[in-house]
Structure formats: structure tokens, C-alpha cells
Fold these 2 entries.
Entry 1:
Amino acid sequence: MNIIVTGGAGFIGSNFIFYMLKKHPQYRIICLDKLTYAGNLSTLSSVMDNPQFRFVKLDICDRNAVYDLFEEENPDIIVNFAAESHVDRSIEEPEIFLNTNIIGTAVLMDACRKYGIQRYHQVSTDEVYGDLPLDRPDLFFTEETPIHTSSPYSSSKASADLLVLAYYRTYGLPVSISRCSNNYGPYQFPEKLIPLIIANCLNDKSLPVYGEGLNVRDWLYVDDHCKAIDLIIHKGRIGEVYNVGGHNEMKNIDIVKIMCEALGKSENLITYVADRKGHDMRYAIDPTKIHDELGWLPETKFEDGIQKTIQWYLDNRQWWETIISGEYQNYYESMYGDR
Ligand code: NAD
Ligand code: TYD
């Protein structure tokens, strides 16, 4: 089996590559990544010498280069992680999100149509459903929940999902889509909440909490997401959407306090800052479908996953310190400087 994994130098894609090379050592994995600010080749250093692995630096919007790679590698399955993924950046600069997340998805699927594949899998997000009110804890996102996006990021991901389903209906392309809740784990870029808080705690910097910190996210350990995608590409039904999440809803402020405690830092570091524009209140996934059809259940409890994650950031300071000492500093200053 030849699998092209796009965006494999990012957070979830790299964890998926590690997961697949271990679980299916006979598979060949080709990672295609543009290496944007969020892609980091050093993340993949442990698999670079694996004969079953190949890295190709490439933009998914570059049609000719994508077609050449398909011709050369003749892939069976495509798993598309490549995306601009940060909501805050999408609010500042929407256009790049439209190019990569929508046009890039179309280019990949056109290549699939041209060269023929067994499965195109789109890695999507629960953010396409918009948000749920805080005072209705009985409500959850199912696959039938209408698309109702809030940010340029979620709108671009929803557009891509609609295109994927259109390619299924119009061209019969064998597609599937997973919509997962917030992930955490090793190799997450320190602009996202959990690694940002860990890095700031370790550097005794203030911990920025948007608004009142009451927004709720449904956190899933990254390996559980990888396992869900592995199941869907092998056993999931074509043309279907699968929600992925583990009923682990937490308020942002509680997450930040847990980090302070785990790292022995004072909660006085917490600083309430201006809220994100259009900030979604609550995400919560109903994972009944993937459980009933594919037997998927999350395996990592939050207490264990967060401990493993914190330990990883402690053990791999060089990885994230290199990131936050570079161009990221300009981003941090512009995002948080006078917020
Ligand atoms: P990330 O930002 O860490 O990684 C994205 C990767 O895509 C980077 O390696 C980047 O270099 C690459 N990339 C960006 N533009 C590209 C382009 N034009 N061509 C080729 N490569 C390009 O993102 P992540 O958190 O790992 O998310 C991966 C996917 O999962 C995304 O599609 C995201 O929407 C989805 N998702 C993420 C979460 C989460 O909590 N992080 C939850 C649900 C779904
Ligand atoms: P984030 O990790 O950006 O993921 P998403 O917006 O895709 O859910 O943010 C998670 C939550 O944490 C979200 O409600 C915004 C909030 N947040 C902060 O309060 N402070 C921060 O510095 C960041 C990056 C996020």
C-alpha cells in the first residue's frame, strides 16, 4: 500500500506518519509538505532514514508538481492534513486559508481523478459545525448537524468538505471525511493553546486567556485521532463523514490552571486578554457513529495524555525553543503585544 500523507511535517500529520509506520511497517508512506511556518522537517528526523518513508517538499496548490508526484508514486490512498490551521491567523489573513484549504484540496482530488486511487481522505474539523451554547450541555455535534461556520479558518475547511462530497457525488471519487475535535500531544506548534501555555509557564511568561476563559473545547489525544483515521481509511464507508471526539469537554481556564499546577507555576501568571473575534463558545462531538460502525473509542484519558504531553515538551525543549526564538517572535508580538 502506497499512502501519500499531505501536511506530514505538521502536528497531527507527523504523529499519523509515526503511527502508520509502526502499525503497518509494510506500507510505504510519502509525506508531501510545503514546509510553511507550521511545518518542521526536524519533526520527521526519526523516520527520514526509514526505507518505507519519503519526504517531498511540495505545495498542494502546485498542480503540475502534484500530478508529477502521483505519476511517480502511484498512490493507493491520500490522507490530506495539509492546511493553514490556526483560527487567529485566519482572522488576520484569510486569503492563504482559501488557497491552501480549498484550492489545494481540489488540486489533490483532481490528481486522484486523473491517476485513480482507492481512497481520498479529508482531515476536517468539528469547527465546521460552528459552536454550541454553554447553557445547553445536552447538545452535541452529530454528522447531521448543519454546517454553520464562524471563522475564515472553519469556513475554508467547510468549503473543502463540501467540495469533497461534491467530487464523490459528481465523479464517484472514493472519499471519506473525519471531523475531529481539538487535538493535543507532542509536536504541536506553540501558537495553539496547550503548547503555548506550557512554553510560557516554562519561561515564566504571562499566560494569555481570551475573554473570560469560559469557552469549552473537547480535547483528544493525537494518537486517538490517528487511530480513528487509520480505521476510516481501511474500513470506513465511502462518501461518509465520521465525527471524532472523546467526550472530554473542558473550559480554557481550567486547562490553563491544570498546566500551572502540573508545572508548579503560580496562577498569578494568568492574564485575561481581549477576546478572539467571533470566538466559538463550545465544541462537543457525538462520536456514536464511528463507535458503532468502526468500534473506535479513545484510549488515552486526559490526565494521562496531558502528563505525556507536558513531559514531551520538557524533554524536547530544543524543538520548541528553536521555533519560538525565530520568526514566531514577530507573530507573538503582533498577536499579544498590546492585546
Ligand atoms: P499544522 O498547522 O500543525 O500542520 C499543517 C501542515 O500543513 C504543516 O506541516 C504545513 O507546512 C503544511 N502545509 C500548509 N500549507 C501547505 C500547502 N499549501 N501544501 C503543502 N503543505 C502545506 O496543523 P495540524 O494541527 O497538524 O492540523 C492538521 C489537519 O488537521 C488540518 O487540516 C486541520 O484543519 C485538521 N484538524 C486539526 C485539529 C487540531 O486540533 N489541531 C483538529 C481537527 C482537525
Ligand atoms: P486554539 O488552540 O487556537 O484552538 P481552536 O481555536 O482551534 O479551538 O485555542 C483553543 C482555545 O483556547 C480557544 O477557545 C481560544 C483559546 N486561547 C486562549 O485563550 N489563549 C491563547 O493564547 C490561545 C492561543 C487560545
Note: The first strand starts at residue 2 and ends at 6.
Entry 2:
Amino acid sequence: MCTQKDDDPSGIGSTETIRIFNDMIETTPQVKNEQIFEAMSDMDHEQLVFCHDESTGLRAIIAIHNTTLGPAMGGTRMWNYASEAEAIKDVLRLSRGMTLKNAIAGLNIGGGKAVIIGDARKQKNEAMMRRFGRFVDTLGGRYWTAEDVNMSTRDMEYIRMETAYVTGIPESMGGSGDPSPVTAYGVYMGMKASAKKVYGTDNLKDKKVMVQGAGNVGTYLIGYLNKEGAKVMVSDIFEDKLDRVIKSHTVTVVDPAEVYDADMDIYAPCALGATLNDETIPQLKCAIVAGGANNQLDNEGKHGNQLKEQGIVYAPDFLINSGGITNVYYEQQGNYNRERVMTQTELIYDVCLEVINHSEKNNITTHEAAMQLALKRIEMIGKVKLPY
Ligand code: NAD
């Protein structure tokens, strides 16, 4: 449970708006069908849209969490969920996360997300993507989509054939292309800000950094770290991913099973979520956690506190991986400019320092401090405009 102080001297966080986020996300029970409104009410979602098409096999759910700052925006994930309840839980959590991310990144968009239930390798095709695009179109711009797990720029092209409310389309089509380099730059900024706090300097030369996941974000991050002279370790479950990184970067490969207790100063989760949990946190000997993966804390309250108690500075994921959404936001605005995007992403450094200082001052976790900052912005802007 997050503690909210009304006499907070920083002015970050207070009042009723924050009530809706006060319960940190736990490793929650499944959402049963008869409890959907209850789940929406718990996290204060605006709208949940179920999309079905027999001929293409499409089964999708679009969640619009909060449109105070503008139309909801967040990617579409295709995943072979074990149950519908699991898919609902995921889309509710992910869309709430987008509200926080978009707010703290200073963007004028709300939080939304979509999930498509199914095996992307077997079921995804042009017809299904276009049918999904038509459903997105019916929302008239209340929800804008983009790529997420198992979706590509090619899929965005198909969706674009049916709706204008899509971003992350290829540069050749006038879009902003792959957002990963920008995401990695933001993660690098968050890591440097954390280092400034811990070591008194943001220079990462000779710092031992463990990058978990040699995918898009991880690889671009390694590029920045190599340039600065950090000692980079990398881990991945696929040999081909590691081979690609080894060829073009200076790295030491670590077995996936040996990541958590490795001798490292900084742990950068850039693979999947929930890697900060009961099992892994006690093994960590690092001073900083700063990475690109979404939902790194298995249980936001408990594991955020556990890191704090171990004296580990945690750079909140939804803050430091917000470069990607910043990138597609400018595409959505129709005046895409890479330089502007990078300048805005660079601000993650200052915001991350502000978050760490606020957490220290108020004896709360950095995750909670970042949430308060995001909610303060929603609350302030909410006073001057109605939801989208
Ligand atoms: P990606 O699929 O390109 O890379 C993920 C990598 O992690 C893959 O190489 C995969 O093999 C590896 N991996 C999976 N499980 C692993 C494990 N147990 N140990 C080590 N490696 C493992 O994805 P990405 O685009 O680089 O995104 C990485 C993370 O960042 C994801 O959680 C994603 O949601 C998040 N994120 C990405 C962006 C973006 O712009 N791409 C933006 C915000 C957040």
C-alpha cells in the first residue's frame, strides 16, 4: 500500500486522484469473467472493448485506462494466453502502466493497450491484422495502437490500411520506424542519473553492467555502454542473439542462470518482466537496477521495498523506458522530428534524479515516487480539461 502524505513538501502527490493507484499491483489473482467490472473499478479503467471475428479467428481486447491527458495510446501485444482471464488481467495492467508512463514522460496522451489472444507464429496474418485495424477504427481515435510483443512494423502497415489510429509504421511510409534505439537511450539516461546518485558521478567507465536480453533495446544499450567504457556482461537464452551482439560489441557472455548473483554494479533487465522477485532480489549484489523491460517488479509494493531495504537504487521501468512511446507520440502528432524526440528523451536523466531524491526525502520507494509524479501531472491537467 502506498502511503500518501497530504503535507508532502515537494507538492508531488496528494488527494483523491491518487486513490485509484494507491494499491500497488500485487501478483494478482486471475480476473474471473463475472468480476470484470470489479477489476476495472479497482484500477479505475474507463473502457474495455472485446473484439471478435470468426473468419480470421481474431479475439482481441482493447483497454482504455485513462484519457485525462489525451487519447489513449499503447501497443498491441499478441500472446498465447492460457485463459481469457489472464488476457484481461494483462491488458488491464499494461494499460494502467501506459497511463503512468505517458504522464511521466510529459506526453499529452492517456493510457491504453490491446492484446490479441493467439499464437503469433501460427495465427497472425494480413486479414487478422486488418480486421483488428477496423476495430481500432471504430473507437474514432480514443485509442491509438503501435507495436508490442510479437507485433512488427509490417503488422502496423496492415492495420494502417484500415485505420489512421496507428503509429510505429515504417519510415518508408512516413512513420518513425523502430522505437528501440530511443528506448535504449532513455534507459541509458536513467542509468547515468542513478549512477550520479550512487557514485557521485554519472560516468559509467569501468562500471560492471549486466544486460539481460540481447534483443533490440539491450543491443542498442550495449552500444552506449561500450562507447563510455563500461565493462558489459550480456545474457540471452538464444545463441543467435548473442552471436549478433558479440560480433559488433565488446561483451562478456553470462549464462542466464548466473545473472542474478553475478559480480555487477548495475543490473539492466532488458528481456521480460517480473525478474525482480522473491527469488532473485536476495541474490543481487549490485548498487543499481536500471533496464528497459516493462513491469520489472513482480509485486510493486513488496519488491520495491525489498530493493530499497537492500540499498539498491531502482530506476523505475515505466520512467526510463518511456523513450519508445515518446518516439511514436511525435509520429502521432504528425510532426515527427528525431532530434526533438532525443532531446525530450534526455530529460529522463533529470526526472530520474528527481524521483530518487523524492523517494529519499519521503522514505518511499522510487517506484512509488515515480507514480506520484505521474499522478500529480494527471491531476493538474485534469483540472483544465475533460477526459478525451
Ligand atoms: P526483444 O524481443 O527484441 O528482446 C528481448 C530479448 O530477451 C530477446 O533476445 C530474448 O531472447 C531475450 N530473453 C528472453 N528471456 C530471457 C531470459 N530469461 N534471459 C535472458 N534473455 C532473455 O525485445 P525488446 O524490444 O528489446 O524489448 C525488451 C524489453 O523492453 C521488453 O520487456 C519490452 O516490453 C520492453 N520495452 C521495449 C521497448 C521498445 O522500444 N522495444 C519500449 C518499452 C519497453
Note: The radius of gyration is 20 Å.
